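wait is this the right file?? whatever heres the structure
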């Protein structure tokens, strides 16, 4: 059995180079919730050197809230915002001799597209043909219907509801912090997902990723 290990990079809050030495896939912030062209280029160059796949981590245009607040964005606007983010990352990737391999929404957009058909459609239409990394829902169902590859992921550093959804961050116990607990949860997930995500937006991200790997 092989399990992909993905993490969020380019968010200016952790050691991207150290994390790229551990993960197999990098969800690269495309400038709308964090990051910049210079950071994207640096991540792509390091990913190319280490053989790590990169994906576009698209978000609402909301740096102030790190992309974690839901916004009401019209279909056409969101589609163009996603296309802009993917296009920017694609340029940075091409300069490093690699390509964007998949799509993964970030934060509030990630959770919104699990249930919201129109927002899911906008995200997919903004990134034609790209495989999708995510949890089951509208986005992954629509991607499959379009013939795209879908990679199911789980979050070992997040608590899960009986429904399979993540416990909201504002509820007690939603985020796991102890490496031992995160590793145990990753092992639980390994039999039912194809990729596990360790969040890269905290100081212990690299140590946690190493422990999970």
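ok assuming it is, sequence goes like this
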């Amino acid at each position: 059995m092989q399990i992909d290990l993905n993490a969020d990079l380019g968010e200016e809050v952790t050691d991207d180079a150290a994390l790229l030495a551990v993960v197999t896939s990098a969800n690269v912030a495309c400038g709308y919730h964090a990051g910049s062209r210079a950071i994207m280029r640096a991540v792509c160059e390091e990913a190319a050197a280490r053989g790590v796949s990169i994906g576009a981590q698209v978000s609402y245009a909301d740096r102030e809230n790190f992309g974690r607040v839901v916004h009401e964005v019209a279909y056409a606007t969101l589609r163009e915002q996603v296309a802009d983010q993917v296009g920017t990352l694609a340029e940075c990737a091409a300069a490093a001799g690699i390509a964007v391999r998949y799509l993964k929404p970030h934060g509030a957009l990630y959770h919104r597209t699990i249930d919201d058909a129109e927002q899911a459609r906008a995200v997919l239409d903004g990134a034609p043909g790209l495989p999708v990394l995510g949890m089951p829902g509208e986005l992954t169902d629509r991607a499959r219907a379009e013939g795209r590859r879908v990679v199911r992921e789980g979050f070992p550093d997040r608590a899960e509801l009986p429904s399979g959804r993540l416990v909201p961050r504002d509820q007690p116990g939603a985020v796991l912090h102890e490496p031992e607990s995160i590793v145990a949860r990753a092992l639980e997930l390994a039999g039912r997902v194809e990729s596990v995500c360790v969040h890269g937006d905290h100081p212990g991200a690299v140590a946690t990723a190493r422990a999970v790997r």
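Residues 75-95 form the longest helix (21 residues). so i think its the right one actually
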